């Protein structure tokens, strides 16, 4: 029996069309839910469409102000059931700019089959923009892998927006081909 993994995606891979292209299958074996990673910040990477996350302790050095709880929390998608092959494709896609690490993720809704995940822009944005509950009311944490950006100097002192990505750049990734 093969083992499966869970991963938290916070950028381009939150879009199911892009995720399916990267893992090179229809993802019918996967389940997902919106989720949140606490005490990390999600930044624009200089000169590209995708983000990078770093621990809050490093992220706050990029700002000259205190961050709100929402700003020092990263919304994303928890995906469960990833195969070894899926992870290999993901590791290749993320490359050497990121390190895969285990983190505690808080689900924000019940999980569902990824085949039910809407690929409509408005639905994707709404799924990840509902108000956050107070931290003590979050669901119990769930262990998952995520990709942490390694070169802080390549990050902008600006938070990355999934809504902006969906509106302005997601379509560019729909025919993604690896180098």
From TrEMBL:
<dbReference type="InterPro" id="IPR009288">
    <property type="entry name" value="AIG2-like_dom"/>
</dbReference>
<feature type="domain" description="Gamma-glutamylcyclotransferase AIG2-like">
    <location>
        <begin position="8"/>
        <end position="105"/>
    </location>
</feature>
<keyword id="KW-0808">Transferase</keyword>
<dbReference type="InterPro" id="IPR036568">
    <property type="entry name" value="GGCT-like_sf"/>
</dbReference>
<dbReference type="Pfam" id="PF06094">
    <property type="entry name" value="GGACT"/>
</dbReference>
<comment type="similarity">
    <text>Belongs to the gamma-glutamylcyclotransferase family.</text>
</comment>
<dbReference type="GO" id="GO:0016740">
    <property type="term" value="F:transferase activity"/>
</dbReference>
<protein>
    <recommendedName>
        <fullName>Putative gamma-glutamylcyclotransferase</fullName>
    </recommendedName>
</protein>
<dbReference type="InterPro" id="IPR045038">
    <property type="entry name" value="AIG2-like"/>
</dbReference>
<dbReference type="InterPro" id="IPR013024">
    <property type="entry name" value="GGCT-like"/>
</dbReference>
